[in-house]
Specification:
Radius of gyration: 56 Å
Order of helices and strands: HHHHHHHH
Distance between the termini: 192 Å
Number of strands: 0
Number of helices: 8
Oligomer: single chain
Shape: rod-shaped
């Protein structure tokens, strides 16, 4: 009688192998399914994160750009204000009117210059009228005003008027008119000598004064 035991064992082994393969295949399929699900979820999350990131960047970047532009504009305005302040300060310094005292000083000098011009015109009119002693006095006032206000443009004309007037005065008349402006002839000459380009005028005035006498002048004869 033939034994069936080996055949039974073979079938048992085969069945065990098939079951093992089936179990392994099932586990592999589960693993693949899980991996697919994981990657799908991860991809979806990645897409969501990227979408949210782009949305945030799309909102945040324009805001940051606007904030930067405002900051730059503010800095530009501050720099502009500082530049304006510097320019104004330089202009005030150039005009020397950075304080009320300087403004007053400027006005005072301007007033002296105006009065000098008025005395000059008045002296010229007196000279035309041949009122030489008074024209000498007013020309002297004009010269002192021009020197005190540092406006010397009309000084040569006024010195010429003094020269012509002095030629027609006596020494006594000349001394009297100089005293009326709180000056002497010598003090007046000393002042003119300090100025540039007027040495010839000084020499001429000294020469004329030295020749003056106390004889009656044309004014006294009248």
């Amino acid at each position: 009688m033939i034994s069936t035991q080996p055949i039974h064992d073979t079938i048992t082994v085969t069945k065990l192998i098939v079951d093992t393969v089936r179990a392994t295949s099932k586990d592999s399929m589960d693993l693949l399914t899980r991996m697919d699900t994981f990657y799908n979820n991860s991809w979806s999350k990645l897409i969501m994160v990227i979408t949210i990131a782009f949305a945030i960047i799309g909102i945040l970047i324009p805001f940051l750009i606007q904030l930067y532009q405002k900051r730059e504009l503010k800095l530009s305005e501050d720099r502009l204000k500082e530049d304006i302040k510097k320019e104004v300060a330089l202009a005030l310094e150039a005009l020397n009117i950075s304080s009320e005292e300087n403004i007053k000083a400027k006005l005072d000098l301007l007033t002296v210059e105006i009065y000098a011009g008025l005395y000059h015109v008045q002296a010229h009119n007196l000279l035309i009228q041949k009122d030489y002693t008074r024209s000498l006095r007013d020309y002297t006032k004009a010269i002192l005003g021009y020197i005190n206000s540092a406006q010397l443009d009309n000084l040569p004309s006024a010195l010429l008027g003094v020269t012509v007037s002095l030629e027609h005065c006596t020494k006594k008349e000349a001394d009297k008119r100089f005293s009326e402006v709180n000056y002497t002839f010598d003090k007046f000459i000393a002042l003119i000598s300090k100025l540039d380009k007027h040495s010839a005028d000084v020499l001429k005035l000294v020469t004329i004064y030295g020749k003056l006498t106390d004889k009656p002048s044309e004014n006294e004869k009248k």
